[in-house]
């Protein structure tokens, strides 16, 4: 529940407790953090922390910058995610998981 994209700053897709995500405009908040100079992972973590503190909401997001820097971060028990980068597929489900496979052409 929630997405935002700006060609100059990046793109975000959110999932989790939809009402909480919308109340804090989570995707836009993540992009704002990136625009303020935060690295992608930190931008997502800060926004998720804000959502937890303000509305007691849980969720996750995948964010990517125009330069290709990305993060998949969540506060829920698990979140299925995947990202492709330079011939590699990165993916995970549980906290701290980050698996990699080669993409075939």
User: What's the end-to-end separation, in Å?
Assistant: 32 Å
Rg result: 13 Å
Strand-residue proportion: 25-35%
> Can you tell me the overall shape?
globular
Q: Numbering strands along the chain, what is their spatial order in the largest sheet?
A: 1-2-3-4
Residues in helices, as a percent range: 25-40%
Low-confidence stretches: none
Oligomer kind: single chain
| Beta strand count | 7
Describe this structure in words.
It is a single chain. The protein is built from 3 helices and 7 strands; from the N terminus they run ββαααβββββ. It has helices at 18-23, 26-35, 40-55, and strands at 3-6, 10-16, 59-64, 70-74, 81-85, 88-92, 99-102.
Write the layout of secondary structure elements.
Layout: E1 3-6, E2 10-16, H1 18-23, H2 26-35, H3 40-55, E3 59-64, E4 70-74, E5 81-85, E6 88-92, E7 99-102
Antiparallel strand pairs: 1-2, 2-3, 3-4, 5-6, 6-7
Helix pairs in contact: 2-3
Keywords, separated by commas or semicolons:
single chain, alpha+beta, 4-stranded antiparallel sheet, 3-stranded antiparallel sheet
Briefly say what this structure is.
The protein has 105 residues and is α+β, with helices and mostly antiparallel strands. The chain has three helices and seven strands, in the order ββαααβββββ.
